[in-house]
Amino acid sequence: MSWKPELEEIERRRELARQMGGPERVARHVAAGRLPVRERIARLLDPGSFREVGSIASKVEYDQDGRLESLTPSNFVTGRGRIEGRPVVVGADDFSVRGGAADGSVGNKVGWSERMARELRVPVVRLVDGTGGGGSVRTTAEIKRSYVPAIVDWEVSVALLSEVPVVAAALGPVAGIGAARVAASHFSVMVRETSQLFVAGPPVVYRAFGRQVSKEELGGSAIHARGSGAVDNEVDSEDEAFAQMRRFLSYLPSSVLEPPPRTAPDDDPERREEELLSIVPRDRRRVYDARRVLELILDRGSIFEMGRLCGRPLITALARVDGVPVGVMAHDPRFLAGAIDAEAAEKMTRFVDLCDTFRLPVVTFVDNPGFAVGIEAEKRGTIRRGVRALCAVYQATTPWCSFIVRKAFGVAGAGHSNHMRSSPRWSWPSGEWGSLPIEGGVEAAYRRELEAAPDPDALRRELEEQLESLRDPILTAESFGVEEIIDPRETRPLLVDWAHRAYEIVCHEARGPRARGMRP
Questions:
Q1: Domain co-membership, 48 together with 154
Q2: Which residue, 133, 214, 458, 472, has most beta carbons within 10 Å?
Q3: Number of domains in the chain
Q4: Is residue 278 located within the same domain as residue 246?
Q5: pTM for the whole structure
Q6: By residue range, what is the domain housing residue 396?
Q7: Mean pLDDT across the stretch 398-415?
């Protein structure tokens, strides 16, 4: 009278499914430096927390007596688990079964898992390897017809971006909808040399252009993490990718209906670093280490940088201030003197949207001479992308504050905050600002006089010296053009005080009604 025989049969099928694409294919996968799918999940999640869903979903064949003859498991593994004790939904492609393509899928496990994450209001983690459930001409051959393309449950993927954190890792060659699933995330990572990302792979490129390219040439991490910005970070191993995904999620709430998770602080909130007093050189032509500035102000060991190798004039990072998670932007004077180029503008837009979606308070450290200028900057549409970044800043409603470390010039410099808000804005004594830097501004404003002068260089120096005294930030503060000029050593205590109130505001908003696109 027991159901034991049926349970034994289910367990037998689970064991067959765990064999994935078979020993030979799995061995090739591992030889390429990639982990089997369930080992990936185990290394990502808290030990023992994974609860698989659809474990026996497979393509099966039966003999004439109804006995199981063959079983090919689904190439997508999904379920619930925990990261640092918090629930997540994870979905992972199994490249050993049909290269992760659509003709290896069973049912709509991808869509089901992401609908589950949306309804449970928990983060989604995508481990993408292959086309990620995308198309294959084998499907056309099997169904003996073609079809108008449609992305099943794409509306769910879009909705997730405004509701719960979405993180993705490209862990092998990723093409088509798999590449789209990586890009449609809040944080993404690639493994150097073992993962590639492209719209279509080398065979399709060869047929289109008659050019042979390798996967790495076409879409390696150097292209995307260091150039296109299609992914945020590159790492040296899958374990490092999992560590970065876990850390990213540690700063964010499980959904937009919750406040970001505050941690117990382990750093002195009143810490005043003497080094800050002289870290910005008096010679404005000299650079300084912007990341060192952040280390001296933010909670020790709390900085998690995103997109470090792309859009390099702008640093974007998650960090903590006395345990409060915040989004941080800082200009890096070592790249284009901190001027915002096209790539940095796109990076800024995406980061501000992330912080505003999940109500992370934003703090900016400003040293911005303006938008990047020159022929190449114009060709790359810097102004269009820059305007989009400014729109993101002005649309953001999350708590915001700024420290003007050095330069704030022009339209781009005005984007350090929304001036219509009373967001705190402090300046260091090294601060300087205006519509244009004096050097370039003299050339533009006094062009006729310079052209007519018997000694243009002497006149230029004279004009610059006359205007030099007007750089003094005290003159601006006297007219309340900037709220306060502070001792740089006071930056952390001021920021801690602001972060405490910002977090109270965020928590209050999370408890109240939030019209942020969530379903009722």
A1: yes
A2: 133
A3: 2
A4: no
A5: 0.89
A6: 274-435+472-509
A7: 94
